[in-house]
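lol ok so funny story. i was supposed to be doing the assay writeup but got distracted and ended up predicting the structure for this chain instead. priorities right. anyway since i did it might as well share w the group, maybe its usefull for someone
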Amino acid sequence: MSETAQKLLQESVGSTVLVKLRGGKELRGTLKSFDQHLNIVIKDAEEVSAEGSRKLGTVVIRGENVLLISPASG
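and the output, tada:
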């Protein structure tokens, strides 16, 4: 992971983020931690879809499944 990406993620710890995953799933929650492989921990996560959202709690996402991490709107 580049130094710039690591710095941006570090600044997002504690903030709400939107994570897009392989397979089309999207999760929203508070970024708790991450590592150099982009394995991430999301607190108060919810799966977001066109049908609504489903609460998941705390989740660990393997870095190879992450396509995008973005600040969440709303």
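The radius of gyration is 12 Å. The mean pLDDT is 93.
back to the writeup now i swear
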